[in-house]
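lol ok so funny story. i was supposed to be doing the assay writeup but got distracted and ended up predicting the structure for this chain instead. priorities right. anyway since i did it might as well share w the group, maybe its usefull for someone
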Amino acid sequence: MPVIKTLPLEIGSGTISDGVTSSFHGADVSEYVTVGIDFSFSTAATSGDVYFKIYGCNDSDYDTNDKFNIITYKFDLYNTSQHFAIKCLEFRNLAVSIVNNTNASITYTVNMVGVRLT
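and the output, tada:
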């Protein structure tokens, strides 16, 4: 069975102030076997951590739907990007949020590449 890899798709980006959690960003992953999620951020902060949270869910109303936490990844100020490979056979949608626990604002980008079988 041939495998199709999609082009990178931005599923979220923005700037959030210190001590703030972003709104949810998400994508329909119902046709994918796996997705690759790339998260990166930049900041002028001198202390604190950033948390990147990935959730599975079954509809696209990301702010109010029931979600289950797949992973919460803690970033320090020296580790500002990471790739995550997520199997997505058990849920229809993927949601992410970012928690800024630093002493300055952060600017972030979240991209996704999907893999599906034809």
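The chain has one domain: 3-117. The chain has a mean pLDDT of 93.
back to the writeup now i swear
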